[in-house]
Amino acid sequence: MKQQIYIFVVEDEPEVLDAIVRDLEEFEDSFPIELADSAEEARELIASIIDEGHTIGLILCDHVLPGQNGVELLVEMQGNPSTERTRKVLITGQAGLDETVRAVNEADLSHYIAKPWEKAELVGSTRKLLTDFVLEQTDNPLEYMSVLDSERIADYIRKGRGITDN
Fold it and tell me: What is the spatial distance between Cα 61 and Cα 10, in angstroms, rounded to a whole number?
């Protein structure tokens, strides 16, 4: 079974969740999108994905969630060897400066997107962060060229850091 790289979205407002998924639909054929509406549900689904031999390439997480907040979840993921390399994005309109700084310092936050977002920013950030992840974490970035940053992938391969003769 081929290892899949997932996009994970944690958001408790159904209409916001739908908007994020709709904005990211161009990635879904290559990167399955998994959804959760709380940190607790996210934790269970992440464990299931990892147990099945897959990985989380990108998580887009709201700050305000029922129960544990999004920053806590991202910090927890950073402390887990299975998810520490996951690109982490806080997508929120409610995180204060202290929580945002904590996410940067303790969760290795990759990006912050304020609500309401522009589709171009969300898609562009997703493409950049998944390209970073694929180049660092996979042996064959070529299979992702059609959906990610093809120039960066081609440059990576051209410089001999990509596909091997296996």
Answer: 5
pLDDT tens-place string over residues 126-139 = 999 999 999 999 98
Of 14, 13, 12, 28, the closest CA to residue 147 belongs to 28
Q: What is the pTM of this model?
A: 0.90
Q: Where are the alpha helices (DSSP H) in the chain?
A: 14-23, 39-51, 70-78, 97-107, 119-137, 150-158
* Cβ-contact 35, 61 below 8 angstroms: no
> Which DSSP state fits 143?
G
For the chain, domains (ranges, CATH) are 5-118 (3.40.50.2300)
Close Cβ partners of 55 (under 8 Å, ≥ 6 residues apart): 3, 4, 5, 6, 49, 82, 86, 137
